[in-house]
Give the backbone structure.
Amino acid sequence: MNIIISNNSDKPLYQQIKEQIKDAIFKGELNEGEILPSIREFANDIQVSVLTIRRVYSDLEKEGFAVSHAGRGTFVSKGNLELLRDSKRRNIEVEMQKIIHTARLFGITKAELGEILDILFDEEIENG
């Protein structure tokens, strides 16, 4: 699992880590039943406090994305995958509303905006 944290981010470290784990679950990079690194190992790998990782795992468990088994570890659970998907869709809708507002300010029609979206979407697919 490749976690990238930034000290320059407005988000706290635990939230940056938690969101990246949830994204990895959503993208299928982490599968249901897969064991997450131990708290100590994970903290050492990304050079944060064990308390930070403990909070991440605790939050993931409360939100239904992980389950802990005493003596065995913490495992990925996809219990709230549909909720996560819906949350991601909502974020996209909010961003699209901003784009639509800006497009209207500049006199861009729905058809033109659709063409721009098609071009950019196709380029993104081609470029991977």
About this structure: The helical segments are 13-27, 39-46, 50-62, 81-105, 110-127. DSSP finds five helices and two strands in the chain. The chain has a mean pLDDT of 90. The chain has two domains: 13-76, 81-127.
